């Protein structure tokens, strides 16, 4: 799944020209669910950066611990928790990478999944709004996950869907047909993502130092021979 994110400072203006940034983007070396994240959504026809709690909390949810931080792409239209948000409230979460844990005989080894060029990722998400009063509200989000590609399957079975910057407007637009939205939720191309092992310091979400994201081994990535096949 996607239980931890690496979000360094990102050049969002270059990634999405025209993005309205009215507040400081949230960054962190080891960000866990149940805290705020920056998200990008369409407001009055313009891409805008905002903040939301990581854990989807629709107004009828009674137990905060039940707020899902991820939603499977295959069940977005069949589960009431996600159906309306998938139709009308889609978002993007800018990130530098996603931590995953590979099962091993003695202990799980954490890996950081990133772009092979270490560029920024736009992760697909859903958001909702809960009005706490007539004038105040709280927003929340969940990331959308898809099956991993063959390269990363030994590390984890699912990862957040990655939306290309050129497809951001189409993903966020309220009038994008359902079939087009579904078509964007596919495993990332093999050449886009790689992964490298990182320190087990990342196991503790209290550790937020940059060392959490430093590689301690080579990057797993497609070789030129594999790309030609």
Automatic annotation (TrEMBL):
InterPro entries per the UniProt record, alphabetical: SRAP, SRAP-like
GO aspect biological process, one term: protein-DNA covalent cross-linking repair
Listed name of the protein: Abasic site processing protein
Keyword DNA-binding (UniProt): yes
Protein's organism: Halomonas stenophila
EC number: 3.4.-.-
Family membership: Belongs to the SOS response-associated peptidase family.
Domain of life according to the entry: Bacteria
Keyword presence, Disulfide bond: no
Recorded GO MF terms: lyase activity; peptidase activity; single-stranded DNA binding
Pfam families assigned to the protein according to its UniProt record, in alphabetical order: SRAP
Keywords from the named record: Covalent protein-DNA linkage, DNA damage, DNA-binding, Hydrolase, Lyase, Protease
Signal peptide region: none
